[in-house]
Specification:
By secondary structure, the chain is of the alpha/beta class. Helix content is 33%, strand content 23%. The protein has helices at 20-24, 31-38, 53-68, 92-99, 116-129, 155-158, 207-213, 227-248, 266-276, 287-290, 297-307, and strands at residues 3-12, 17-19, 42-44, 77-81, 106-110, 135-142, 164-173, 179-187, 195-196, 224-225, 258-261, 316-323, 327-334. The strands form 4 sheets. It has a 5-stranded mixed β-sheet, sandwiched between helices. Strands 8-13-12-11 form a 4-stranded mixed β-sheet, sandwiched between helices. A two-stranded antiparallel sheet has the order 2-3. Bound molecules: oxa(dethia)-CoA. Residues 29, 33-34, 37-38, 114, 155-156, 159-160, 227-228, 230-231, 234, 264-265, 268, 292, 323 line the site of oxa(dethia)-CoA (UT7).
Length: 335
């Protein structure tokens, strides 16, 4: 058995900054409401034709591979987490294999929304633990902007989300006291429709009927979220799954050097911080700049925390996420 370690990290966000004031020009919202309820000041949106989920993932991956000093021919497997793939099928994993010129290695797509990167890390970790693979590219990337309802009807959802990508190279670690110590995954599908994008899944519908009806009021192509219900579940599940990870490793809350929560809402992160009595420099937040980038949020935040020198060798780093599914999970790392 081996452990896996994070050997390199990278992220990419589009240059195009969209402020809360910009949103208030196209829908009935305002900067004060968005900042007070979510902490978000601005987010990045791609410009038409400039980027896709895959192209951003590839850019983030190249940075992570450079930093890990891992060449394309040394990548053994790809795991790509997203809810916004370029194509309905095939998924972006194979596009990364193509665009990075990897060997004909396996490429797996993970569909676990906000928990996607945690699930992806967990999958990659198992392959490395067993010795099957040595270096795995794990990517989380999202283009939300092209799929949001940018009218007042969609304001409860659309103001939260942003575009971006993050990536990690996971590599074999022979010291079993270091690297990823454990991963913890959960789901509760009874709440599947509380945070959902129904189309283009067919769910009993026929494409021919959808095209024939061509209904401009068909909201199934926009994400739906029961915000307060999601919020209430998030704070409970975040706390539970962080504690589950700590207990598994005989760690206490006081052992956490850095908690990187999925950047869903600054209020959720602050709730956890207060509950666990963590200091400001023990919980990383960058949702103010990027909004909620779903599967990309943890690798972007992890990269920024690492770049800022806020994660050092020997630190206990905790990653945690909650989102659509519902799904939630955590990762405990000895850096
Ligand atoms: O990342 C995946 C997991 N997602 C999450 O964890 C998100 C969890 N939920 C949330 O973050 C929050 O529920 C939201 C930020 C989405 C919404 O905040 P809220 O405090 O729960 O607001 P609300 O939905 O209860 O809406 C309160 C009021 C309503 O008006 P009335 O009925 O009180 O008159 C909304 O119509 O705010 C109104 N509202 C807005 N006003 C201005 C909703 N969206 C907006 C908006 N701008 N963008």
């Amino acid at each position: 058995m081996y452990n896996s370690k994070i050997a390199g990290l990278g992220f990419y966000v589009p240059d195009n900054i969209v402020t809360n004031d910009d949103l208030s020009k196209v829908m009935d919202t305002n900067d004060a409401w968005i900042q007070e309820r979510t902490g978000i000041k601005e987010r990045r949106f791609i410009k038409k034709g400039e980027d896709t989920t895959t192209s951003m993932g590839v850019k983030a991956a190249k940075i992570a591979m450079d930093r890990a000093k891992i060449a394309a021919e040394d990548i053994d497997f790809v795991v790509f987490a997203t809810l916004s793939p370029d194509y309905y099928f095939p998924g972006p994993g194979v596009l990364v294999q193509r665009d990075l010129g990897l060997r004909t290695v396996g490429a797996l797509d993970v569909r676990n929304q906000c928990s996607g990167f945690i699930y992806a890390i967990s999958v990659a970790d198992q392959y490395i633990k067993t010795g099957m693979y040595k270096n795995i590219l794990v990517i989380g990337s999202e283009v939300h902007s092209s799929g949001l309802d940018m009218t007042s009807r969609g304001r409860g959802v659309s103001v939260i989300f942003g575009d971006g990508a993050g990536a990690a190279v996971l590599s074999r670690e022979e010291d079993l006291t270091k690297g990823i110590l454990s991963t913890h995954l959960h789901s509760e599908g009874v709440h599947a429709e509380e945070l959902v994008l129904k189309a283009p899944g067919m769910g009993g519908r026929w494409v021919s009927d959808i095209l024939k009806d061509n209904d401009p009021n068909d909201e199934s192509y926009f994400p739906y979220m029961n915000g307060q219900f999601v919020f209430k579940n998030a704070v409970v599940r975040f706390s539970e799954v962080i504690m589950e990870g700590l207990h598994k490793n005989n760690l206490e809350i006081s052992d956490i050097d850095m908690l990187i929560p999925h950047q869903a809402n600054l209020r959720i992160s602050q709730f956890i911080q207060q509950k666990f009595k963590l200091k400001d420099d023990q919980v990383f937040s960058n949702i103010q700049k990027y909004g909620n980038t779903t599967a990309a949020s943890i690798p972007i935040a992890l990269t920024e925390a690492w770049q800022a020198g806020q994660i050092k060798s020997g630190d206990t780093v905790v990653l945690a996420a909650f989102g659509s599914g519902f799904t939630w999970g955590s990762v405990i790392i000895k850096w």
